[in-house]
Amino acid sequence: MSTEKKTFLKSTGRFSIATIISRIMGLLREVSFAAVFGAASSMDAFVAAFRIPNLLRDLFAEGALSAAYVPVFTEKLKKEGARKAFLITSSVFSIMLVVLGLIVILGILLAPYYVKYYVSGFGDDASQMALTTRLTQIMFPFILLIAFAAVSMGTLNSLGRFGIPALAPALFNLVMIISALYLTRFFNPPVLGLGFGAVIGGGGQFIIQIPQLLKNGYRYEFRLDFKNESVRKIFKLMLPAALGVAAWQINVVVATIIASYLESGSISSLYYALRLMHLPLGVFGVALATVSLPEISALVASKDLAGTASAQRFSSRMTIFLLLPSAAFLMGGAEAIVSAVYQRGSFSWDDTVRVAQALRAYAIGLVFFGLVRVTAQVFYAFKDTGTPVKISFLAVAVNIVLSLIFIRPFGFAGLALATSISAIVNFSLLSFYSHRKAPPPDSFGLLRYFLRILMVSFVSGLIALLVSRSILADGAAVAFSRAVLATVISGAAAGAIYFIICGFLKIDELKQIKSIFK
Questions:
Q1: Are 66 and 154 in contact (CB under 8 A)?
Q2: In Å, how far are 23, 174, 182, 188 from 210, measured between CA atoms?
Q3: Which residues have CB under 8 Å from 439's CB, separation 6+?
């Protein structure tokens, strides 16, 4: 294995380890939410309210800003050094402070006017609508704080620092756990405590990265330098990237709007399933995409097109190798996983069954959610944010149409299925058009590889299904210890089968991961 691949995998490993810690904390956060609130109407209000700043976070912060900022910062760093690159960082911080500060103020003041359209299905329940509006107002400052965290993360990633930025969300999750278990006791209704916790956690996600920024030589200067060529390039790239990267959030918002017309608990059931699906997506898919963007940006800056294509192929194969078996396990062991994570307190077996239905539907698209992130990095490295946004518009349209079609036969789970299919469409088009940027990374070879891993994953998923169902024989009466046992044993059995067959088939990615552990 080449030195570049070893470095890439080591960086991904560091990011993944930090992300695992963060995601475990995220699961504990959801456990605390489920135990305190279950899948009730107050949780529906919190989830719906948090979706609004979450959408704007992708539009103006984490997704779009990273896609536009990292390639420009990396190019400046490579050609002119850290001092010049850090001036760009200060300008972006300053502009975000002014622009997003204004958006936060408007978002708080205008919430009573736009929230009623966002969750129009709550219209018959005035108290539910009022609660959603109040939570939206409380959580709107989250956008500004998470934007600062995103700039910090992009800067540190470009400097080859992945651990602390990946660990930062763990602090957010810790604050949310404390909020659910303790802070909510001081509010009426209690769910308001989660809103304040989200703002405090967002601030912590930024603050934890400041020491490493300072350690790497960064010093903040207030600069509203709109005339700087690099700064103008970043914000020019952000506009289309905002819509392109936010396609996922737009799909989630569409599902929320439609689900608000369904039975109580539909929104929170989708939310709980989505959080479980995000565990492997964050640990593997997001990690690979985050590490690949600075690397591919550096290759593009060096005009190494062959290296760019090789990096894309490598990260795509690794995404398939890690996320397909993860999806198979989520589908096969759905009830065991949901029961082990959520079923306690106000969360019943009926809630477990509902969330498991949505989880299986989301798992169908898991590997494609990861591949979309990895493939989009090629466009961002070439500073092309226009093509992904056009493709995203089509994917969103597909999601809306399929949501309306699937809602009747599949209920709220149909919304998750529509989101998964739209991810397949998104990746397929991104992959096709990415070849116009760099030499084609052997598409048919990647397809053959996908089918091989799919067959192996199917076997491992079937093992997980048989093992978990044999242990969870009594359904609603299942104890927490049995649910955990079913999850662990079915996961271990599925993982063992997967790696044994991959070893027999001499899959390269298995050898590469083994060499890194050695």
A1: yes
A2: 22, 19, 28, 35
A3: 305, 306, 309
**What is the reported pLDDT for 453?**
93
pLDDT digits (tens, 9 = 90+) for 54-65: 766 666 555 667
- Collect all residues with Cβ–Cβ distance below 8 Å to 25 and sequence separation of at least 6: 169, 170, 173, 174, 177
Whether the predicted pLDDT of 414 surpasses 60: yes
Query: Residue for token digits 């691949």?
Result: 5
* Residue 405 C-alpha from the chain's centroid: 26
User: What does the pLDDT read at residue 440?
Assistant: 58
Is the CB of residue 86 less than 8 Å from the CB of residue 72? no
Give the whole-angstrom CA distance, residue 184 versus residue 196.
9
If one compares 113 and 289, the residue with the highest pLDDT of the two is: 113
pTM: 0.72
As for how many domains the chain has, the answer is: 1
pLDDT at 196: 92
Residues with Cβ within 8 Å of residue 31, at least 6 apart in sequence:
341, 342, 344
269 neighbors 351 (Cβ within 8 angstroms): yes
Alpha carbon 466 to its chain centroid, in Å, reads 30
**DSSP states of 296-360:** HHHHHHTT-HHHHHHHHHHHHHHHHHHHHHHHHHHHHTHHHHHHHHH-STT--HHHHHHHHHHHH
Q: Are 240 and 385 in contact (CB under 8 A)?
A: yes
User: Tokens for 97?
Assistant: 């402070």
pLDDT at res. 517? 59
User: What count of Cα atoms within 13 Å lies in the side-chain half-sphere of residue 328?
Assistant: 27
**The pair of three-digit structure tokens given for residue 485, joined into one six-digit string:** 């046992």
- CB-CB contact of 380 with 68 (8 Å): yes
Q: How confident is the model at residue 392 (pLDDT cuts 50, 70, 90)?
A: confident
State CA 154 to chain mean position distance.
Answer: 16
pLDDT of residue 40: 61
Tokens of 405: 């079609």
The mean pLDDT of the chain is 82
**Packing angle of the helix pair 192-207, 41-60 (nearest 10 deg):** 30
Neighbours of 440 (CB within 10 A): 16
Q: Residue 314 has what pLDDT?
A: 81
State which residues form the domain around 413: 3-517
> Would you state the structure tokens that stand for residue 404, as one six-digit string?
């309306």
Kindly give the interhelix angle for 3-37 and 508-517, rounded to the nearest 10 degrees: 90
- The gap between the terminal CA atoms of the chain, to the nearest Å, is 13
Within 61-81, residue ranges assigned H as helices are 62-80
**Number of Cα atoms under 13 Å in the Cβ half of residue 459:** 13
Residue 338 reports pLDDT greater than 70 = yes
Q: With cut-offs at 50, 70 and 90, classify the pLDDT of residue 290.
A: low
Q: What CA–CA distance (Å, rounded) separates 268 from 256?
A: 9
**Overall size of the chain counted in residues:** 518
Q: Residue 157 pLDDT more than 70?
A: yes
Cα–Cα distance, 378 to 337 (Å, whole number):
35
